[in-house]
Amino acid sequence: MLEAVVFVLTVAVVGGLLFLGGSVLLGRGETQPPADPDRSPLELPEDRPVTADDVRGVRMSVTVRGYRMTEVDWLLEQLARALEERDAATAALRARLEQSGHPPGTDAAPPSGAGAGGNGARADA
What is the residue range of the signal peptide feature (predicted)? Predict the structure, then answer.
């Protein structure tokens, strides 16, 4: 009879230790409040356009049930390349605009109505 009591107590103690260890390692629910949808822990510039280096510099926190770092890193690299292509295309267009004699920021289009006869009259009428 004494062996049965010792066995039951041993099983209870081992089970309790396993539960305690699992609780410490895996946590007992959310320990942090939910994230504010209007605020991100990641920081990107707000005073200028985002560049490829900004995207490459983003580092996300990793948790036990986190993300696959290789997939997110691949995605960030693709976004950075897209930003580099966009920036290169924008720079090329601005250079062409400057070479044509129209500085950036000025409207190169003719005033409205100037190309269609001035007073709105049709040419074939």
Answer: none
